[in-house]
What we know:
By secondary structure, the protein is of the alpha+beta class. 32% of the residues lie in helices and 20% in strands. The protein has helices at 125-128, 188-192, 230-245, 255-267, 301-313, 317-332, 381-394, 401-416, 436-456, 462-480, 504-507, 515-527, 555-567, 571-582, 609-633; strands spanning 13-17, 22-26, 30-35, 43-45, 56-61, 65-71, 78-84, 87-96, 102-122, 133-138, 144-150, 153-158, 179-180, 199-206, 210-219, 299-300, 341-342, 353-354, 368-369, 481-482, 487-488, 594-596, 601-603.
Amino acid sequence: MAGSTRSTPLEDYALLSDLRTGALVSRVGSIDWLCLPRFDSPAVFSALLGGPEDGRWCLSVVDGEVLDRRYIPETFVLETTWRSPSGTARVTDCLLRSESQGDLIRRVECLDGEVTVEHDLRLRFDYARATPWTREIARDGGHRALLALAGPDGILVTGPMLRWPDEDDDESSPNDDTHARTDVRDDERSQEGGRARRLEGTFDVRAGERLDWDLTWFPSHDDVPDPPDAEETIAATISAWTEWSSQLEVDCDPRPEVTRSLLVLRALTNLDTGAIVAAPTTSLPEYFGGERNWDYRYTWLRDAAFTIEVVVAHGLTEGAELWRDWLLRAVAGDVDDVKIMYGVGGERQLIETELDHLDGYEDSRPVRIGNGAADQYQADVVGEVMIALHDLREAGVHEDEYTWGLQKGLLRYAERHFDREDHGIWEMRGSTHHFTHGRAMMWAAFDRGVRAVEDHGLDGPVERWRDLRTRLAEEIDEHGYDSELGSFTQTYDNSEVDASLLQLPHTGFLDYDDPRMLGTVGRIERDLVTEEGFVHRYRVDSGIDGLEGGEYPFVLCTFWLVEQYAGSGRIDDAQSLMETMVSRGSDLGLFSEEFDPGSGRLAGNFPQAFSHIGLIRAADALQAARKAREEGER
């Protein structure tokens, strides 16, 4: 069903984050995705992967249109301005920082005239597999609230009362400052509860008036919590975001997009554990209507490593330690059996299953939870981790016996798997190979081990590491480079090219302007780059990945090409491609995994850490190239 617009375009969604989980709210006010209490918890709202009946919370202005939306600067607090024939209103959506519960605040302020707002709330726990038992309860001060329970989950909804449809309109709202037209009769159903398919409410709000609703998640076995003070907690949330962003050092263009991308990395982080998820979503397709739909709500060692690299480069050395400590704790679970990804808390079992009851985004099935690639061997991972931890050492972060000991354990792991074929950075579900990128990353792992001993005086079997590094360099030159084609190849046993080869200079294996690298770029431009300049990961019709169907160009790979152009002196090409790719992000500066040039839509899980990491690195590379050119012209 490629080209269909049945599902809300991804670029129409905004991300909310409380540093434990994330919500997606559409331009017209529908929260269609929210997992509570963690990124990898079951979803309470799953309309993103189905329809409204699968759970959502829509808050909109009757007969209104959206004039504008924005994040309050350097936060993830969303403001949407609506205009109706009778007035103007601002809706503020915010996930509040909390230690023990999840709180989603929705505030409506009438700026002029009078507006009518309406709610459509459909709670569906466990990916729409459980409709909670919902009832009214009395709160302190005589206020009423809605309590919804199912299994381990509890939801408390406070604010002007929402009701089941078709109840009589014979009472006003308990909030004296509202002018409600909701159903509020205390009939038998609302007193005793029921499995509500839908809760709704319509409220008139006049100039200067403000209404707040709060949805609070809590463990169902705990006491019902007190809702937060909206004014205080919104202010505290804004303050926490701006305090963190004030530490950023961003002196490259485009500054707003780089800053937002760094904020995205923070937003995708679970502050309790230090884990950064690849994306807050699952099963958003790499090709509309296709089967390449994966769960990205977990933490890849690779993503954590890349995050450390970019935040260190932008002044957050101390903040990077949060991600480093998660990474080392996860690996410490069994350094002899390193996983490529873990749960937010470091869980090792991420069993992949399919949710047949959900139609999928743009009818893209199956919808998956869990990720079977967690059990793959990917040779590049240890190298990426060692590069990131090397950068931390270079930035002055202290290394102790524990942190260095685990790194030595990673190098022992790499040595034990020295000759083993793998599934590659793209998690191929076909047969294993020696991927040239993976072998170069293994080279980088031993290289950083050697440099730790030589430059920082740490202990280790440096002679053996040097020997392994040399063997890998010779092997890559012999088997990973095709002199007749004049380029590196995807694997040792084929002649394809792969966008991951653009990362070879980043490892230090060779320079960006090395003739072998320039030849490889030429082949990538011919075989993997679209007319608009967007880069595919590899040719899917080669059959190497073991999957059916296609995929769109990869945002990260396009930014990698920007980085390569900048590093090899093609600054004008780099700038042009950078501007093209940045312009394809959402109006809020968010990027998904892929981009469909045909429809002009974002595709794949959203927003994606990889894509934002790529943007930051591309901007940094361009800045460095410009400075080098200016110095050379003096």
